[in-house]
Specification:
213 residues, alpha+beta, Mago nashi protein, 6-stranded antiparallel beta sheet, 6 strands, 22% strand, globular
Length: 213
């Protein structure tokens, strides 16, 4: 190899080294680019800790958006529930929250083939005779039950479902909030007292937790 060939080889090695470093640096940046990097994720008292602004279907910064995030966050905070929007992107998890004067939540997660359920039912300030203390449930689920969850996700087309129902809310009923986190993707759906349709499949989660419908 003469001096000219050696110089060309050295130049090519340096060029590809620079490309490799730039590509790896880009990967590192994209890895940290997730919901977990939001400033609110460092403040558990923030109403954006659970629900990013605008994630519930109302315009970010609106009174309705602030009200809903505050109301639902209060329930999840009282349950000592984790934030799904701030969760590190591992596995797949869904949470079914019902708010009707109290809070009731069932969270199902799958990670590396292991499926688990965590449920919390808070006492009702309006019907104290029904539940006198907070109920908590932790249990394992089968692969078949996880398949049922994924069927429920598919049935309502969850990942493309509008966050708010255009018909809005009513005066007497309950709010259903379904959250999902898959990798770096997060989505939340808010519905007022659904009476029929495939969204009713989410009541399976409550049955598995042993909560009344």
């Amino acid at each position: 190899m003469n001096d000219r060939q050696a110089a060309v080889l050295c130049t090519n090695v340096m060029k590809w080294t620079v490309v490799f470093v730039l590509v790896c640096s880009g990967c590192a940046c994209s890895k940290g680019d997730s919901f977990a990097s939001r400033p609110a994720c460092g403040d558990t008292s923030s109403d954006e800790f659970f629900f990013p602004a605008g994630s519930l279907g109302s315009p970010a910064g609106s009174e309705d958006d602030a009200y809903r995030r505050r109301l639902y966050s209060e329930s999840l905070r009282a349950m000592s529930e984790p934030s799904l929007s701030c969760k590190e992107p591992t596995g797949e998890v869904y949470r079914f929250l019902r708010v009707n004067g109290k809070g009731s939540s069932v969270r199902v997660a799958e990670h590396e083939g292991v499926v688990s359920l965590s449920g919390v039912d808070l006492p009702s300030p309006f019907y104290p005779h029904e539940i006198v203390e907070t109920r908590r449930v932790e249990k394992s689920l089968t692969a078949g039950q996880w398949a049922t969850v994924l069927e429920a996700v598919k049935a309502i087309e969850f990942w493309s479902m509008p966050s708010r129902d255009p018909e809005g809310s009513g005066a007497d009923g309950e709010e259903w909030i379904i959250e999902g986190r898959r990798g770096r993707r997060y989505h939340a759906v808010n519905r007022w007292s659904p009476r029929g349709g495939p969204i009713q499949r989410w009541l399976n989660l409550r049955n598995w937790a042993g909560f009344t419908p």
